[in-house]
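Weekly modeling sync, notes
Attendees: S.R. (lead), two postdocs, one rotation student

Agenda item 3: backlog of single-chain predictions. S.R. asked that every request posted to the team notebook include the full sequence so nobody has to chase files. The rotation student volunteered to paste the first one in as an example of the format we agreed on. Action items at the bottom.

Example entry:
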Amino acid sequence: MDTVSDFILTRLSQWGIRRVYGYPGDGINGMIGAFGRTEQPLEFIQTRHEETAALMACAHAKFTGQVGVCLATSGPGAIHLLNGLYDAKMDHQPVVALVGQQARSAMGGDYQQEVDLMSLFKDVAHDFVHTLSAPAQARHLIDRAMRIAMERRAVTCVILPNDVQDLPAVEAPPRSHGTVHTGIGVTAHAHTPDPAALKAAAAILNSGERVAILAGAGALDAHAELQAVAERLSAGVAKALLGKAAIDDNLPWVTGSIGLLGTQPSWTLMNECDCLLMVGTAFPYAEFLPAEGQARAVQIDRDGRKIGLRYPVEIGLVGDAKTTLDALLPLLHQKEHGRWRERIEKSVAKWRETVSARAMTDAEPLNPQRVFSELSPRLPDDCILTCDSGSAANWYARNLMVRPGMKASISGGLATMGCGVPYALAGKLAYPGRPAIALVGDGAMQMNGINELITIADRWQNWDNPSLIIMVLNNGDLNEVTWEQRVLGGDPRFEDSQLLPPFPYADYARLLGLNGVRVKQAKAYLGALMKEGDSGGAALRATLKQWWASL
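Predicted structure, as returned to the notebook:
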């Protein structure tokens, strides 16, 4: 007879889940045993740490649009999940956490490793955190966790006592105080606002003479619609960091990133516009938006709670970015590409010249801006691009030009270190035929990346295209914090806190059976990166089976 754990895996498979990221432990043994028995197309991905399991579940959600699922044991395993789950919460990603718990009979007194899991998860999974107390609840709790995660773009959590995990499954609970079986189905969201709201929004946008668009993660699937609306309104487009892949960076009126890691053209765009269209973003730094009262504003977001959160808007359109923009487009007047668009394009062209000049400045041993600038045109069109927090994020935001077809992400709201390699690995597992590239600093690499190289070494031979590249910027320093110390305090870095112990990254990669390259000069970097003259990325896909460069 199937157990509750067997049923949970079957139910997850019915929801379309194909992999679960996690780490075993005695509090979750029933679920781990079920993985060994399951005939479902469901894979258990053993990570090196529960934090990276949650980060990978978050990345899976970001890159696939599906729910990410992670699993951990009770006590320390559950605690370790939290950072990755907060990454998902703050970037509004649907993640379900399955967490083990010691037997219910032991909960009345002290028990080794046990913590109050309901209290532990009530903030990060405040939309839904429940304990499975009887087999008949399993279907209802798993279904609710999945539905709420998808609809609210949120983290949910189901706590699984280990004695309940091994009880006989109840696949169809009695209707008395239970649920009626209606099968798997995704709740339909209100994808498009009503015609009156669309007409009112169009009137505001048509009235503007200097229109600016700010695109975020909610616009990632609306590339063509976003471009069409921008062309119709003769607008410039700035992007929140999580929306970097929402529109082609090479378009002459795309000003690039906004905010602390933003560009001068984005700053100018926001300070001089008289009309603002925000699409799928809850960009947190209001000081980089137009001054209140300067611009009339329209906001599109699938979550009505985000409307007007950062900037006062006249019309809020609650709906999916792609379908809402498509419905809005016929109502918009074609504006002439006059002085406003010309000013934007001149500002963008001048900025790109500045960035290029900065990148070519000589440095010893190597200017990191050049690394990113030279990499940018050589990126394959179908690559999955990840970046860690720290100074690498500066060059990712400003020097990399993302093109259509690429997927790219970073830890946005939480800005946690140690996400870059787990993100890239999750992307590769979801799309084994696509090249994945992680851009990380040495601090982040020492924090999480080195451990997950073991996972990569164990799995890369199973991939259709084994190109997974990890580029480590190795300066022996926690550079972003050092910069902050100098700017804010005016004092030299506190070396005991900032200097990192030397580590032979490339040698360690080779020890694991991967390729490792250490580069100290720009010429050597280009030779390692790509065959001379290859701007399309073919050599990257064809010859670099597993490249791990320490720069």
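Discussion: group reviewed the output briefly. The chain is about 40% helix and 15% strand.
Action items: rotation student to repeat for the remaining queue; S.R. to check formatting next week.
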